[in-house]
Write a structure and sequence with these properties.
Helix 2 packs parallel to helix 11 and helix 9 packs across helix 10. This protein is of the alpha/beta class. It has 13 helices and ten strands. Strand 5, helix 4 and strand 6 form a beta-alpha-beta unit. The radius of gyration is 20 Å and the shape is globular.
Length: 340
């Protein structure tokens, strides 16, 4: 396992991060996504740690808190050395204030997460989505307070637009309070929209990128073709994140022979492609079975050639949109001008 710096924190995290959305059940959506019990969770967490993973991500909304509870028990006696991340934003009860990014909800939700996780601090606390009903400065000041209280080491965000993240960074800088150190965002061969604005922003501001759903919700797992699929796979009943299926199948057509040449599955090629991007800090992998976990873990050993990267880049490339196509003219570019 290799390790990469988490932005400028001085903290190093494994380039693969264990995601825990499959932990726990309850409502039908969580049964569909995972439904794993304590024994299965223990096996996956311990196998991941043995493989060198030191970074684990969860969220309070996963299985209505059960994911955090199961993870906390699995980490008993193993917390030292683990960079533990969780999130806040989603609804955690029927009350009017049991949702969002208000100071009230953040303080209550963090204490509840710490109790479920069986720890007195988390290393990375992330807002799960934007909250347009709460003043961003209030949210950031609340997050600054939990860092100062020692309950959180660093803060991050997830699923924000580039302008929302930049606005938050500007407020943190102006108010001299804690700033987001990373974003957790969707990125895959089948979903490269992050390259339009977010990745250039991250590089410019020196933030980390944690990638969720690198296999596009299982679409790039190798289980799906134009003529067949896997009825037991999550995407068969939970078609998320959205994928342009026809473009996706073209990507698989290119990825399959590359995978065969390396003697691996398509999933490892999709993960290796993301790991080759220097903007990426860590790729979040989830699993319902140890065999899936073991297969994903092997992706760190796959090195794609320049020709293979070019083929994958070409088949999955984004349509050029304004104002990007203005930059392609190049008539006023200065020698040595940086481009993303």
């Amino acid at each position: 396992m290799k390790f990469r710096p988490l932005a400028d924190t001085g903290v190093f995290v494994s380039e693969l991060c264990l995601g825990t959305m499959t932990f726990g059940g309850g409502a039908q959506i969580w049964q569909t996504i995972g439904g794993l019990d304590q024994a299965a969770v223990d096996a996956i967490v311990h196998r991941s740690i043995d493989a060198g993973i030191n970074f684990i991500d969860t969220a309070n909304v996963y299985a209505a808190g059960e994911s955090e509870t199961l993870l906390g028990k699995a980490l008993a006696g193993k917390r030292q050395g683990i960079v533990l991340a969780t999130k806040v934003r989603g609804r955690m009860g029927p009350g009017a204030n049991q949702v969002g990014l208000s100071r009230l909800h953040i303080m209550e939700a963090l204490d509840a997460s710490l109790k479920r996780l069986g720890t007195d601090y988390v290393d990375l606390y992330q807002i799960h989505r934007f909250d347009n009903l709460t003043n961003v400065e209030d949210t950031l000041r609340a997050l600054d307070d939990v860092v100062r209280a020692g309950k959180v080491r660093y803060i991050g965000c997830s699923n924000l637009a580039a302008w929302q993240l930049m606005k938050a960074l500007g407020i943190s800088r102006a108010q001299n309070i804690e700033r987001f150190r990373c974003t957790q965002s969707y990125y895959s061969l089948a979903g490269r929209e992050l390259e339009r604005e977010m990745i250039p922003l991250l590089k410019d501001q020196g933030l980390g990128l944690l990638v969720w759903s690198p296999l596009a919700g299982g679409f790039l797992s190798g289980k799906f073709t134009r003529t067949s699929g896997d009825d037991k796979a999550r995407r068969a009943t939970f078609d998320f994140p959205p994928v342009d299926k026809e473009k996706g199948f073209k990507i698989l057509d290119v990825a399959a022979p590359i995978a065969a040449a390396h003697g691996v599955g398509v999933a490892q090629i999709a993960l290796a492609w993301i790991l080759a991007n220097d903007a990426v800090t860590s790729v979040i992998i989830g699993a319902r079975k140890l065999t899936q976990l073991d297969d994903n873990l092997k992706s760190v050993d796959v090195t794609l050639s320049a020709e293979e990267m070019a083929a994958l880049n070409d088949v999955s490339k984004l349509t050029v949109e304004y104002p990007t196509w203005m930059d392609s003219l190049g008539s006023d570019r200065r020698p040595g001008e940086r481009r993303y």
